[in-house]
Write a structure and sequence with these properties.
This protein is an all-alpha fold. It has one domain: Farnesyl Diphosphate Synthase (Orthogonal Bundle), CATH 1.10.600. It has 13 helices and no strands. Helix 3 runs parallel beside helix 6 and helix 11 crosses helix 13. The longest helix has 24 residues. The protein is globular, with a radius of gyration of 19 Å. The termini are far apart.
């Protein structure tokens, strides 16, 4: 593949990430360049698929996600794609030996968003694995590239972190998911309303996952640790803020962390990461 086309593909991943998530992009700035560029490509691929199922309402989403999936597998076999985002992702998948079953699980979860409106307990675990856990595992493959044996040791923590992130996103986007997309991602709400008691059950589960995830974050390579720790602290702040708001507010308002608090977290996480594992709380 021509170097110029390869560079263009990777820059498209970077541009997509920066346009869609300023917070995620900021966290990546605390990582080494190689990890950062690879994760840009991963995020862009995931984002494009997510956009198809969540926002392309005026189009045939079933056909579009099928074409997206077919384009990926074709590109993987050929070694090139005319879709720059898919092309960058394939380059990363091959370079870092990202298992195909992770990609397959992700695509399966995206397709299920077009079918499922309400999840059972086993169903949501499978969905979160495909839509979130595998994302953490893909990124982990990049982070431990010099020591592949660490992947199996840290994969449990990576999955817990991704799961906690996803559940907080579900809570933050509750209004849009229920009203505009007619989806319920919390089995606890299948037979009861979303009230303060139900919210507490969900928040408690998320906090437990964050505690387990922090153990693994502390063990990440130094070049990647600060960026992941920043994302963890940002979502912890979001969790605290959501926990303080009554359930009635969450059903009508999207909660966010103010930009000034995000800015304060940046140097704090960098310093604590450099200071050592015991300072990361």
């Amino acid at each position: 593949m021509d170097k110029l086309y390869r560079d263009l593909s990777m820059k498209t991943g970077r541009l997509t990430t920066r346009l869609y998530s300023t917070s995620f992009s900021a966290g990546l700035m605390l990582m080494d360049k190689e990890s950062r560029e690879a994760i840009y490509a991963i995020y862009a691929f995931l984002r494009q698929a997510d956009e198809i199922v969540d926002t392309f309402h005026q189009f045939d989403k079933v056909s579009l996600i099928r074409e997206f999936e077919e384009d990926y597998y074709r590109a993987y076999q050929r070694g090139i794609s005319l879709n720059l985002i898919i092309n960058a992702f394939v380059l990363v998948v091959k370079k870092y030996s990202i298992p195909q079953d992770l990609v397959e699980a992700f695509l399966s979860s995206m397709k299920s968003d077009l079918e499922n409106k309400e999840f059972t307990e086993p169903g949501i675990k499978q969905y979160i694995y495909g839509s979130a856990d595998v994302v953490g595992l893909m990124c982990l493959k990049v982070m431990v590239r010099d020591n592949p044996g660490e992947y199996d040791r840290l994969k449990g923590s990576a999955m817990k972190l991704s799961s906690a992130f996803q559940k907080i996103n579900f809570l933050r986007d509750l209004k849009n998911d229920t009203e505009n997309l007619s989806r319920n991602y919390f089995p606890v709400l299948n037979d009861r309303p979303f009230d303060d008691a139900a919210k507490e059950v969900i928040i408690r589960d998320i906090r437990e996952e964050f505690c387990e995830a922090l153990v693994g974050i502390r063990e990440l390579p130094k070049r990647s640790r600060a960026g992941v720790y920043l994302a963890y602290r940002y979502y912890m702040e979001l969790t605290k803020k959501i926990a303080r708001h009554p359930s009635a507010i969450l059903k009508n308002q999207r909660i966010r962390v103010p930009d000034y608090k995000k800015a304060l977290l940046f140097p704090l996480c960098h310093i604590r990461s450099l200071a050592g594992k015991k300072f990361m709380v």
